[in-house]
Inverse folding.
């Protein structure tokens, strides 16, 4: 059995880079809640709240026990400092500076309690209302009192919030997304605020609960073999000439990459309609960006990595209107020019043919990147279907083996975009795969729709861009945080189990959203080295190629699990992400003939550490699962 020491800093706030605290960890176990800042106008319809992709925050870690977020809401600048004290308590300091005279109803610090706390009781301490100085039912009643502290209790769980001075504390039970939740509000400022005014408040948040030490029980069902997992893939869109090469080289030398996605710099390939890009390229007129992108594709192909080609920016002649590089009236991208569709098909095919003739590289799949959203070509669902048929037929007529990628959507949530082509018999012959990007839409029901689409067509499913926060490039310090690394690999484990993809293509294996640290990336001049995210990816990449998804069930939601295997070869792999405390795992349902597993662990402290060999006895194996860790078992 492998054991690991618990980090001495056993209590830590889980702070998101936009400023919301999503809980406090104690020995790895998360006491979940969510804090935020809410700005309420005198018009009740105008309410702004700190949230993912709603502001443009800046995140940094000041020390092991201290984090800070700065962000704007309208004309108010907020600086939020969160400091741990190691005993289940954190201190939150919020400084608000007005940069314009603003009339408001108020600005509030709020805390949303877990749904289970609908059954909790609350108590105000040192308040003005004696009837609230003892425990009362928390849900269903509006509470308002000026007090020193408020405390909620549910069985062994407690949560208290204490302002730095006696303050109005309001409790409301509200319906959000058809679910009741308890909200706690404490004003930072009521009424208007004048230009230059600075308001600062401090809050102590304390949690406590028994640490769950009951064993994790997992059951594997090897009688059902789903779709095959080829392995971890990667995106190789070149954007940073100085820092990309070192990251690409390191990743290709240290990861088994099963699929590669590269850019077709279409606007540079054929900037003018009435020119022949092949002639221009052959005569030495190829644009440097096109040359680099083709060399990237060739490099991947030369080491046995299948190539997916995606176009972002169209040339002017292929688009309707002036090219939009940012959203216009909330709408991204440009539609294709319907008058030039034949020329569009030819231009793309010419690129693929030139790549094949010049470099010997055959493109497996082609797509427009996120054309459901318009990054940067925008089509309707029906236009997507029509394009697949039109361009796919052109490819086939010119002897290309390249197939079309259905979807390549911006998110899992926009699955209806693929339905016309999915259900069009005339489109099927041209579709070689289905793809979505994992930035949003992580619920089981939504993810299952993508698995169903791939099953319906009998083609592989790809997660064309894998990661969790599309805006993270703007606060890159978050890439080094344990919370980010754990959320990312947790999503990948769930994708393996629910979607059964052929590959998850990391966005990116370049300096953009880099899994490596230093080397001048994001201004960090440390020597280039792997971080926790890289070790997670490397551990995922050691999954033997071609294993089939297999059902695995567990008794604890805090442990995500995915299993793969091949009954003919007798090879199995199990991936586990522990979002809780250290505990024992009992895995059953293994083939009786299976004798041993190698175990690998990645966490904040461990870099794909190989543990002691695990012995399987009569279809069962027992081992320790370290707190907040990613663990992989591979049969020996």
């Amino acid at each position: 059995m492998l054991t690991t020491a618990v980090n001495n800093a056993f209590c830590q706030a889980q702070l998101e880079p936009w400023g919301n605290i999503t809980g406090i960890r104690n020995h790895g176990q998360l006491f979940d809640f969510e804090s935020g800042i809410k700005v309420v106008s005198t018009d009740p319809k105008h309410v702004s709240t700190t949230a993912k992709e709603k502001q443009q925050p800046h995140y940094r870690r000041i020390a092991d026990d201290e984090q800070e977020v700065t962000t704007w809401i309208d004309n108010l600048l907020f600086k939020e400092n969160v400091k741990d004290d190691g005993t289940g308590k954190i201190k939150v300091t919020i400084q608000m500076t007005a940069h314009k005279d603003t009339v408001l109803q108020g600005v509030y610090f709020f805390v949303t309690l877990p749904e289970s706390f609908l059954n909790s009781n609350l108590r105000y301490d040192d308040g003005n209302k004696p009837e609230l100085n003892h425990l009362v039912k928390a849900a269903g009643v509006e509470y308002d009192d000026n007090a020193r502290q408020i405390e909620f209790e549910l069985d062994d769980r407690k949560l208290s919030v204490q302002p730095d001075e006696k303050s109005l504390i309001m409790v409301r039970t509200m319906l959000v997304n058809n679910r009741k939740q308890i909200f706690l509000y404490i004003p930072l400022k009521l009424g208007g605020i004048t230009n230059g005014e600075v308001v600062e408040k401090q809050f102590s948040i304390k949690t406590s609960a028994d640490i769950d030490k009951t064993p994790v029980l997992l059951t594997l069902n090897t009688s059902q073999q789903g779709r095959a997992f080829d392995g971890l893939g990667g995106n190789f869109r070149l954007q940073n000439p100085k820092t990309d090469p070192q990251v690409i080289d390191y990743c290709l030398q240290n990861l088994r990459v099963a699929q590669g996605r590269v850019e077709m710099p279409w606007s540079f390939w054929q900037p003018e309609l009435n020119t022949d890009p092949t002639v221009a390229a052959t005569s030495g007129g190829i644009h440097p960006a096109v040359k680099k992108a083709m060399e990237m594709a060739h490099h991947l192909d030369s080491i046995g990595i299948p190539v997916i080609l995606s176009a972002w920016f169209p040339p002017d002649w292929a688009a309707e209107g002036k090219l939009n590089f940012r959203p216009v009236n909330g709408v991204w991208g440009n539609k294709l020019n319907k008058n030039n569709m034949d020329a569009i098909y030819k231009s793309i095919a010419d690129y693929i043919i030139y790549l094949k003739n010049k470099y010997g590289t055959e493109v497996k799949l082609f797509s427009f990147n996120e054309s459901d959203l318009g990054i940067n070509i925008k089509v309707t669902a029906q236009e997507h279907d029509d394009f697949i048929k039109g361009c796919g037929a052109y490819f086939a007529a010119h002897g290309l083996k390249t197939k079309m990628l259905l979807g390549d959507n911006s998110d899992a949530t926009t699955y209806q975009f693929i339905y016309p082509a999915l259900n069009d018999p005339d489109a099927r012959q041209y579709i070689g795969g289905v793809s979505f990007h994992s930035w949003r839409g992580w619920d089981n029901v939504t993810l299952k729709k993508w698995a169903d689409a791939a099953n319906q067509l009998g083609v592989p499913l790809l997660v064309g861009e894998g990661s969790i926060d599309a805006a993270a490039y703007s606060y890159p310090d978050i890439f080094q945080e344990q919370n980010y690394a754990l959320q990312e690999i947790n999503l990948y484990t769930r994708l393996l189990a629910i979607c059964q993809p052929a590959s998850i293509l990391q966005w990116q294996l370049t300096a953009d959203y880099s899994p490596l640290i230093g080397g001048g990336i994001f201004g960090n001049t440390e020597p280039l080295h792997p971080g926790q995210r890289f070790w997670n990816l490397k551990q995922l990449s050691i999954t033997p190629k071609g294993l089939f998804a297999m059902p695995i069930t567990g008794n604890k939601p805090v442990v995500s699990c995915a299993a793969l295997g091949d009954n003919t070869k007798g090879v199995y792999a199990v991936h586990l992400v522990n979002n809780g405390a250290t505990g024992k795992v009992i895995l059953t349902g293994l083939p009786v003939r299976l004798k041993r597993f190698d175990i690998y662990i990645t966490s904040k402290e461990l870099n794909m550490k190989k543990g002691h060999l695990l012995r399987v006895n009569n279809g069962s194996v027992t081992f320790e699962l370290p707190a907040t860790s990613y663990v992989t078992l591979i049969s020996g």
About this structure: Residues 1-9 have pLDDT under 50 and may be disordered. Residues 341-359 form the longest helix (19 residues). The first strand starts at residue 11 and ends at 15. The chain has eleven helices and 40 strands.
